[in-house]
Design brief:
Elements (H helix, E strand, L loop, with lengths): L2 E8 L2 E9 L2 E6 L2 E10 L5 E7 L2 H14 L4 E6 L3 H9 L3 E12 L2 H4 L10 E4 L6 H17 L25 E6 L2 E9 L6 E7 L8 H15 L4 E7 L3 H9 L3 E11 L1
Parallel strand pairs: 5-6, 11-12
Antiparallel strand pairs: 1-2, 2-3, 3-4, 4-5, 6-13, 7-12, 7-13, 8-9, 9-10, 10-11
């Protein structure tokens, strides 16, 4: 696919927008590339788009072309502090749907106050890389079904992973698990990113909430990072998730960024 989608005026010049593939658009002005757009479908089925442009006119032309070609609803993500980007997407008809807070999470036990807490009675912590894959996958599916049946999985921190359809646990070695007697009941996933590890998910089965399991999981994961020489980790929390917000802020995590998910319906 390589056809001119639109040619529109931009000041003294013309910006030509071409759809160069099923998922990519390109804007050219005076034989120079001045913008591009990309579309990608996330594992939950939602279609996200992004635009990189030199100036407002190029952004608007690429947005017009993509909106004409793609079905709604369409989603995008912007840094809350980037007012120019938010304004550009709002010109294209997008509106804020939800907000994620980004937290810097200390690992030093004297700062977090976690120390070495004893897990609740009957609960043991299975270190990262030691969980049995079958029960881990079963727990992950139970938790995802519980979330989908309540607030919906799309309210969880946005995350795009290359994975086969239906596979939600890509790398079991990243998971620390809480086991209650012979049953897995909670998990935390930490991606060992070189610059700053990322806490991608911390969750406990609904019938085991409010027992201190999440706190014990977090204490173990952060303690492991601290012993390896890592001073802090990164975590994203939906602003409506009061329990997760309270948990991170209770251990000294500092809100360092905000991300807006925008939608055009």
């Amino acid at each position: 696919m390589n056809f001119a989608h639109s040619i529109s005026g931009a000041g003294d010049h013309a910006v030509a927008v071409t759809r160069v593939s099923d998922t990519r658009w390109r804007a050219v002005e005076d034989d120079r590339v001045v913008g591009s757009g990309d579309a990608s479908r996330r594992p939950d089925g939602r279609l996200f788009i992004s635009i990189d442009a030199w100036h407002e006119a190029a952004f608007d032309r690429v947005a017009d072309a993509m909106l004409a070609d793609l079905p709604t609803p369409l989603y995008t993500v912007v840094d809350e502090a980037d007012h120019d980007s938010r304004s550009a997407w709002e010109r294209a008809g997008f509106a804020a749907a939800r907000r994620e807070w980004g937290y810097l999470v200390p690992t030093e036990p004297r700062v977090t106050g976690l120390g070495s807490p004893r897990p609740p009675s009957g609960v043991t912590i299975v270190p990262a890389g030691e969980a049995e894959e079958g029960p881990l996958r079963a727990l992950d599916r139970v938790i995802r079904d519980e979330v989908e049946a309540t607030v919906g999985w799309r309210t969880m921190p946005a995350e795009v992973l290359p994975r086969p359809a239906g596979t939600t646990v890509v790398d079991p070695s990243k998971y620390t698990v809480a086991r209650h007697f012979d049953q897995y009941v909670g998990l935390v996933r930490v991606a060992p990113v070189t610059r700053q590890p990322r806490i991608g998910l911390i969750a406990v089965r609904a019938d085991r909430h409010r027992r201190g399991i999440a706190r014990a999981l977090l204490a173990h994961a952060l303690g492991s990072l601290h012993r390896s020489g890592t001073a802090s980790a990164w975590a994203e929390v939906n602003e409506s998730n009061a329990a997760a917000t309270a948990l991170f802020e209770s251990i000294g995590a500092r809100r360092a960024a905000g991300t807006l998910e925008l939608v055009r319906r």
